[in-house]
Amino acid sequence: MDIRDRKLAQLITQYSIGVKPGDRVVIRAGVQAEPLLKELYRCILEVGAHPTLWPELGWPEELLFNLGSDEQISYIHKTTALYYEEYDCLIRVLSEQNTKHLNGVEPRKFALFTQSRGKLMNTYMDRAASGAFRWALTLYPTNAYAQDADMSLDDYADFVYRACMPDMEDPVGYWRGVSAQQARIVDWLKGKKKVHLLGKDTDLRLSIEGRTFINCDCRVNIPDGEIFTGPVEDSMEGHVTFSYPTIYNGREVTGVYLEFEKGRVVKASAQKNEEFLLSTLDTDAGARGVGEFAIGTNEGIQQFTRQILFDEKIGGSFHMALGKGYPESGSVAQSAIHWDMICDLRDGGQIWVDDQLLYENGRFVIEG
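^ that's the sequence the OP posted. Answer follows.
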């Protein structure tokens, strides 16, 4: 047993989602993550809660997309709906053996699959916003992720555990400290109205009037380190060129450029997989809107690894999500998709809020 798995399981169950006696908890993961799954299962039992496993094997999705009819691709099993509609907690552990196994799927089928699960996404986000459903997302190091990050498995495992638990002796204390630091920024942003963001080939304006910034301090994502809100739905104006490849449903899209008018994408292009980008933007009426605007704050994550769980936290970056917004931020954006895209601001980037400079070259510059 790797003692880091035990510590990570304790962090997730005791701090991140706070499993309580009697809670019904589903753990969704692949077999590669078995060492961590065992520790999570153990921790949940020790609290007096009820764990169950939702296995992810990879090949069922591949067969479904290749052999299934549109009706089969859209079908939702009652057990799947039950987890989101009635369970108290969900722990998702990303643990793929092959991150490219769905690259050959037609974009139309991906869009159909995502569209059919729009109601489930709304249910889980609404229940999470109300506190009725607590969920956490983490990643178990596999050879597939290590290869995507251009690392050996051992080096990647060290990267993952360091990012999740920078203070191995007191991981909870560390994240409470991060929470306090980020709370200062969130408090400063209260009552502010307008954001102007400048970066390489990027000039965006958006409204945050009446919206709430959320302090992401390892309660949901493990690792964490960001603050985010939902911009006013019709406010995004301008253009953005994303610095890094963006990955959605296993498909990597590079060189993404978007133009916005009245909160919606009116022009989109990509250097690679543009067809997939455009198809996903047409998933439903809300897919061309913006549900999230966020600033990455994790200084311990400085390299791009092709895993959004880590990459969106890169200290010195901002990201936005097309589609569905988080209700707790005040967003009312509706869509079956939530697609995060990241932009580096460490080389000349600026964020102005109500004509005050908040952020420059990847650093907050406000005082207090």
